[in-house]
From TrEMBL:
GO BP: lipid transport
InterPro entries: Bifun_inhib/LTP/seed_sf, Bifunc_inhib/LTP/seed_store, nsLTP2
Protein name: Bifunctional inhibitor/plant lipid transfer protein/seed storage helical domain-containing protein
CDD domains: nsLTP2
First and last residue of the signal peptide: 1-25
GO molecular function, one term: lipid binding
Entry keyword Transport: yes
UniProt KW keywords: Lipid-binding, Signal, Transport
Keyword Aminoacyl-tRNA synthetase: no
Bifunctional inhibitor/plant lipid transfer protein/seed storage helical domain sequence ranges: 31-94
Length: 94
């Protein structure tokens, strides 16, 4: 089976991108996914593993949430940032 140079280059590029993490799966932004973090954000309790997982999953959406006046108060609160840091998922620069 012959493989053209172009096909080989494309395959190699995809492998490199996948290894470096530059290929990003699409995320469905849904602020309700962060409800697992509500108790940690509104109190001083530590975030659960489910909260951290959801927060990391929704991280690409945080800038969008900050533009929503209804979500901004909660998402931009000092406790929300503490939770994000505790989960190892700091807020992006928007």
């Amino acid at each position: 089976m012959k493989v053209s140079h172009a096909t080989l280059c494309i395959m190699l590029t995809l492998v490199v991108l996948a290894e470096t993490g530059l290929c990003v799966a699409a995320v469905t932004c849904n602020a309700l996914q962060l409800s697992a973090c509500a108790s940690a954000i509104t109190s001083s309790s530590p975030p659960s593993s489910v909260c951290c997982s959801k927060l990391k999953e929704q991280r690409p959406c945080l800038c969008q949430y900050l533009k929503d006046p209804n979500l901004k108060r909660l998402v931009n609160s000092p406790n929300a940032r503490k939770v994000a840091n505790a989960c190892g998922s700091p807020f992006p620069s928007c």
